[in-house]
Amino acid sequence: MASKLKKLVDDSKEGSGTELDLVDKGIVNILEIPGFASLKNLTKLVLAHNKISSVPPNIANFLNLEIIVLFNNIIEELPTTLSSLPKLKILNVGMNRLNSLPRGFGACPMLEVLDVTYNNLSENSLPANFFCLDTLRALYMGDNDFEHLPPEIGRLKNLQVLVLRENDLVELPKDMGELTRLRELHIQGNRLTVLPPEMGNLDLVGTKQVFKADGNPWVTPIADQFQVGISHVFDYIRSDTYKFLYGRHIAARADPPPKSVDKSKKISRIKK
Predict the structure, then answer these.
(1) Three-state DSSP class for residue 213
(2) Residue 15 has pLDDT above 60, yes or no
């Protein structure tokens, strides 16, 4: 296997030396990839479907990296040095075992796409400066453990795609209404009963937009509107009738719906 990996690295060097694609090669340790340290011009690193448990801090030495794909490994934490990569635009660490994101992560200067799908993240897992990632265009956080979304989500003004499906969300903050560039929102499979009226500011109705919200225990008036169509849902939440209902609902402070999915069996929870 080592000789095969060496050949792939050598081939990369002989080519432009900017892309290394080592999908499903049984890699356990990035530092043990033969000749890896010499690939200083790497712009794209794909190590999906391996058995990598940690990312070395010296990943920050690869100053030209724009794309890192570590999907489907067994990574439990990321190094704080990641945020110092000056050109990093796409980071995919979906399908791992992350319980948190590193301190200072929000300092990534160019990050446009972040995929943390299917990990063990919650609102308590995010570093204090996470919502300083104002270059983000797409944020994939499905299949995690969020119950509440911090109101600071409203700072991500450039966000066009937000995926929050299959979490444990019991409410959405009114600050969602500030994401005026959002064209795709996935909130299906949560514990949501109402939508904040401020979401009426969003442009999520039309052939080029995507709004998915099934699998939530909506209050009857909202559920009825979903039966008719998405445009009716948004018309309704903009109405004074709904604003009154929403205010009463929040004031009542009812217990949130129970969790319907046992996540203790998730692959991401299984220890090595």
Answers:
(1) coil
(2) no
Is residue 37 within 8 Å of residue 60, measured between CB atoms? Answer: no
Helix (H) or strand (E) holding 1, with range, is none
What is the CATH classification number for the domain harbouring 247? 3.80.10.10
How many folded domains does the chain comprise?
Answer: 1
Under a CB-based contact definition with an 8 Å cutoff, are residues 159 and 136 in contact? yes
What is the per-residue DSSP string for 34-91? TTGGG-TT-SEEE--SS---B--GGGGG-TT--EEE--SS---B--GGGGG-TT--EE
pLDDT tens string 203-234: 999 999 999 999 999 999 999 999 999 999 99
Dihedral sign, Cα of residue 128, residue 133, residue 134, residue 136: negative
DSSP string of 243-269, one letter each residue: HHHHHHHHHHTPPPPPP-S-GGG-GGG
Which residues lie below 8 Å from residue 270, measured CB to CB, with a gap of 6+? 97
pLDDT in tens, 166-187: 999 999 999 999 999 999 999 9
Instruction: Say what the pLDDT of residue 37 is.
Output: 87
Burial class (CB in 10 A: 0-12, 13-18, 19+), 16: exposed
**pTM of the full predicted structure?**
0.93
Range of the domain at 124: 1-269
The three-class DSSP label of residue 236 is helix
SS3 content of the chain, % helix, strand, coil (to 5): 35, 10, 55
Cα(168)–Cα(146) distance, integer angstroms: 5
Picking from 213, 184, 191, the residue whose alpha carbon sits closest to that of residue 146 is: 191
Residues whose CB falls within 8 Å of the CB of residue 223, separated by 6 or more in sequence, listed in order: none
